[in-house]
Amino acid sequence: MDKKKNYSVWFYAARVLPVFALTLTLVFYFLEAQTLLECVMVVALCLFLFIAIYWWWWIMLTSKDLFDLVTETNKKFTEVIKEVKAIKKEVTNVNNRERGK
Hints:
Blueprint lengths: L2 H29 L4 H65 L1
Helix pairs in contact: 1-2
């Protein structure tokens, strides 16, 4: 795992885990979970919530990365097209000079 990804994992963990812990605490408080089964059910539901939120963040970041990739690729293709046009123009000029001789 490179440094950027490692930083990203800790950065998002620092954002999401406190919210998850607070949500879990509030759910326990408001549902007045007392038995072990109730606690397990609340933990399972909060885990599903955490996975859904994490998945949503992952989709948003992946979409952003794909958009950036497409934008960068488009710029590079534009440069290549300009270079091909310039080469085509040079080849045409060389052919015209050779025909003139």
